[in-house]
Write a structure and sequence with these properties.
The chain has about 600 residues and is of the alpha/beta class. The chain folds into four domains: about 110 residues, 3-layer Sandwich (Rieske Iron-sulfur Protein), CATH 2.102.10; about 180 residues, FAD/NAD(P)-binding domain (3-Layer(bba) Sandwich), CATH 3.50.50; about 110 residues, FAD/NAD(P)-binding domain (3-Layer(bba) Sandwich), CATH 3.50.50; about 80 residues, FAD/NAD-linked reductase, C-terminal dimerisation domain (Enolase-like, domain 1, 2-Layer Sandwich). Strands 11, 12, 13, 14, 15, 16 and 28 form a seven-stranded mixed beta sheet that branches. Strands 1-10-9-4-3-2 form a six-stranded antiparallel beta sheet. It has a five-stranded parallel beta sheet with strand order 18-25-19-20-21. Helix 2 runs parallel beside helix 8. GO terms for molecular function: 2 iron, 2 sulfur cluster binding; metal ion binding; oxidoreductase activity, acting on NAD(P)H. Keywords: 2Fe-2S, Apoptosis, Electron transport, FAD, Flavoprotein, Iron, Iron-sulfur, Metal-binding, Mitochondrion, Oxidoreductase, Transport.
Length: about 600
């Protein structure tokens, strides 16, 4: 025991190894990358599951020969609040010193593999620099999203002023830990027409709700139903990497659902919800009773209503099949994208190398204007123009013209005619809540489901989460908002599950989102709706900047490119309940040519 050692010969272990991302530009595409063992085959349709299959997980008490131990540093090498990556021969570990105590954890974020040493340490947790997931440094547990898995926690001991870390070799290579979960012990699982929990929608909210119930020891029946043909998958990646295959996008393998008794009904459309009798009816006539219900139906993309809308090769991107078809048809052809929001711009960026030409049509004067403001929008637009994307701004589509039924031209209201073989429509979405209209479950005038901080609807025992809800945003004075971010859906799914179990949890997450275009990432935290000023530090032309969005005297959101980990830092400050004043930011921009951010954590002046 103790001391450093030479690198041992690797043992053959059947485990999932998450490969390091080759470079930062690839970060957005690296989750369960090509050929990952997390893939599943088949479409997962199942009303009858067998639970004999078990997932291989590292043994909780590894044998001594499965462990490595090494002295990694001197106790004085790390100051309080510092983090360092240390090598254990079989893999790296994140060493953290906080309040005089050392902690050792997995060093990569299980979501997309970000190096956590570059993240933010605050209030007993480390926040990922890329997408804002948070992990408790004492347990390794995931405390805020995105992602599903936690970090391994390793033993630390101090001997003769040296810090030793002991870890299982398997855990070092796995880099992720799925929380312990209950199994389903309901005798009727898979067969009867009643379930304890029914979840409508298998996006992030639905999946996290089901997993949280099992993590909290719930062992009754859970049925998760989805319109999709697939088990839950990583939807944000669809528009960033259009030719990714469905099995590469799977968030969990088929065996996972079997092992934990989470029944998934694919291609299952709920047509009515009868809250009085606690029953739902599916399109095929199948009826299912429930005692608790989560509605997480997500949204449906808006389509064009202009002349010629029925011509072929006009797409919205909702499923892996949509995305794959667009790429196949776009190779070497002319593509028109309608809408310069996140989806449209991500698709445009992805297709530039594959299509002959890419054109973007948008009503606003700059892309992302309402979200990121004029100056940031213009800088991003320039990056696209440098990559041969042509913009037609402040106009819209008046007609789609076809030849032999297939798209040939897009006619704009400005009377400009643009050649087009493929058209992708990204003009927003509407909540997919039509099936609830006669149910007695409250909907607002736009079709959203209003919920309280506990994700409860107006009907007892019925919860809602994800893109189809409006909820009170705690740190913006409980303003009722709709935030269709992947990360928010995770958080809402967890809160809904906790409240199904009467834990009285409330939504407190700070919204966090990201986008990736031409290998560059933009990160964003907060809720910037209604900003009245933007303060920019850094260089917009070089795309190395941070933009603070303010309303009155307060910072309400932040966006950055090549300026990590400032967005995670701001998210952490907002999550702690501290307001960031406009004056603080103005002083920072005025005096900080170095980009020093210590003022944010209260360490600077």
């Amino acid at each position: 025991m103790g001391g450093c050692f030479s690198k041992p010969k690797p043992v053959e272990l059947k485990i999932e190894v998450v490969l390091p991302e080759k470079e930062r530009g690839k970060e957005e595409l690296s989750a369960s990358g090509k050929g990952s063992p997390r893939a599943y085959q088949g479409n997962g349709t199942a009303r009858h599951f067998h639970t004999e299959e078990r997932l291989s997980t590292p043994h909780p008490y590894p044998s001594p020969q499965d462990c490595v131990e090494a002295a990694v540093c001197h106790v004085k090498d790390l100051e309080n609040g510092q983090m360092r990556e240390v090598e254990l021969g079989w893999g790296k570990v994140l060493l953290v010193k906080d309040n005089g105590e050392f902690h050792a954890l997995g060093h990569k974020c299980p979501h997309y593999g970000a190096p956590l040493v570059k993240g933010v340490l605050s209030r007993g947790r480390v926040r990922c620099p890329w997408h804002g997931a948070c992990f408790n440094i004492s347990t390794g547990d995931l405390e805020d999203f995105p992602g599903l898995d936690s970090l391994h926690k390793f033993q630390v001991k101090i001997e003769k002023e040296k810090v030793y870390v002991r870890a299982s070799k398997q855990a070092l290579q796995l880099q992720r830990r799925t929380k312990v979960m209950a199994k389903c012990i309901s005798p009727s699982a898979g067969y009867s027409s009643s379930t304890n929990v029914l979840i409508v929608g298998a996006g992030a909210a639905g999946l996290v709700c089901a997993e949280t119930l099992r993590q909290e020891g719930f062992s009754d029946r859970i049925v998760l139903c989805t319109l999709d043909r697939h088990l839950p998958y990583d939807r944000p990646k669809l528009s960033k990497s259009l030719d990714t295959q469905p099995e590469q996008l799977a968030l969990r393998p088929k065996e996972f659902f079997r092992a934990y008794g989470i029944e998934v009904l694919t291609e299952a459309q709920v047509v009515t919800v009868d809250v009085r009798n606690k029953k739902v009816v599916f399109k095929d006539g199948f009826k299912l009773e429930y005692s608790k219900l989560l509605l997480a139906p997500g949204s449906s993309p808006k389509t064009l209503s202009c002349k010629g809308k029925e011509v072929e090769n006009v797409f919205t991107i909702r499923t892996p099949e949509d995305a794959n078809r667009v790429v196949r048809l776009a190779r070497g052809r002319n593509v028109v994208i309608v809408g310069a929001g996140f989806l449209g711009m991500e698709v445009a960026a992805y297709l530039t190398e594959k299509a002959h030409s890419v054109s973007v049509v948008e009503l606003e004067e700059t892309p992302f204007r309402r979200f990121l403001g004029e100056r940031v929008g213009r800088a991003l637009m320039k990056m696209f123009e440098n990559n041969r994307v042509k913009f037609y701004m402040q106009t819209e589509v008046s007609e789609l013209r076809g030849q032999e039924g297939k798209l040939k031209e897009v006619v704009l209201k400005s009377s400009k005619v643009v050649r087009a073989d493929v058209c992708v429509v990204g003009i927003g979405a509407v909540p997919a809540t039509g099936f609830l209209r006669q149910s007695g479950i409250g909907l607002d005038s736009r079709g959203f489901i209003p919920v309280n901080k506990m994700m409860q609807t107006n009907v007892p025992g019925v919860f809602a989460a994800g893109d189809a809800v409006t909820f009170p945003l705690a740190w913006r004075n409980n303003r009722k908002v709709n935030i269709p971010h992947w990360q928010m859906a995770h958080a809402q799914g967890r809160v809904a599950a906790q409240n199904m179990l009467a834990q009285e949890a409330e939504m407190s997450t700070v919204p966090y989102l990201w986008t990736a275009m031409f290998g560059k990432s933009l990160r964003y935290a907060g809720y910037g709706e209604g900003f009245d000023d933007v303060i920019i530090q850094g260089d917009l032309e070089e795309l190395k900047f941070v933009a603070f969005y303010t309303k009155g005297d307060e910072v309400i959101a932040v966006a950055s490119m090549n300026y990590d980990p400032i967005v995670s830092k701001v998210a952490e400050v907002l999550a702690s309940g501290r307001a960031i004043r406009k004056r603080e930011v103005e002083l920072f921009v005025l005096h900080s040519k170095t980009g020093d951010m210590s003022w944010l954590t209260g360490k600077g002046s």
